[in-house]
Amino acid sequence: MRLFGRIFLLFIAATAWAVASAPAEPVPLRRAHSHNDYVHARPLHEALELGYCSVEADIYLVEGRLLVGHDRKDLKPDRTLEALYLDPLQAIARRNGGRIHRAVATITLLIDIKTEAEATYLALDTVLSRYPDLLTSFSPVQTEPRAVTVIISGNRAVDVIARQSSRRAAIDGRPTDLEGSASAALIPWISANWSDLSKWRGNGAMPAADREKLSRWVTLAHQQGRALRFWNTPDTPAMWQLLLEAGVDIIGADHLAPFRDFLLQRTNAQP
User: Fold this and answer.
1) What is the DSSP string of 166-229?
2) What is the mean pLDDT of residues 256-260?
C-alpha cells in the first residue's frame, strides 16, 4: 500500500507539473486575418500561436495536386494544401476536443484559387471531402459549424459551388453581392480591394464621402449577416484603427505580432 501511495503521489505531481508547464492558450483574435499566411517562416502555426482566427493560402492546381504559393515560381512539391494546412489543423482539432482555439467554435481558412476556377475547385472539393470531422459543412437547409470553415476566394467557381447540395466551402463575395440575394450561408464574407473604396492610405483625415461609403458597406453586410474584409490596406496602426472604428469585421495583417499587440491594447478589438 505504501508503494501504491508513493506511485499515486508521483502521478499527481507529474500531472500537476505537466499542466503548469503547458503553454498558455493565446487570446483568440476573432478579427485578425493572416494575409498571405504561407509566406511566413512557420505557415499556420505562427498565426495560431498569436491567436489569429483566420489564415489565407493561395493554391495552384499542378498535375492534380494543390500546391501553396504566391507565384508559380514559389511552388514546391512538398508544399501542398494538405501538408501545410489541413493535416496540421486536423491534428490540432483532435488534441483540442474538436476546436483550434478552445474558446472559438470555428476559425477560417481562406483559400485563394490562382488557377482555373472550376477544375481547381473540383480538385479542392475532393481533398476537402477527406476531412469531414474538421470542416464546416453546408446544405440548402443548414450549416454545421466545425473547427475550420473554408471560404473560397480568387478564381471562384460560383455556379458550381452554388449548385452543390452538400459542400465543405463557402464563397468569398464581392461588394456587388451586397446588392444581390445570395444567402449568407453561400456568401458569408464580402472582400474588397481598399483602393476601390478610397485612396486614403492613413495620412490626414479620410474624406467624408469615403467614410460614408465605408459605413454603408459595413451596414449592408451586417444587415445581411455577412462579414466585411478589405485587402490592399496599409499595414499600419492608422489603418487598423480606422477599420476597427468603422466596424469592419476581418482585418488582414502581414506583420502578425504588431497587429496582435495593437488589438490586445484595445477593448473594442473583439466583436
Assistant:
1) SBS-EEEE-GGGGGS---TTT--EEEEEHHHH----SSSPPPHHHHHHHHHHHHHHHHTT-EEE
2) 97
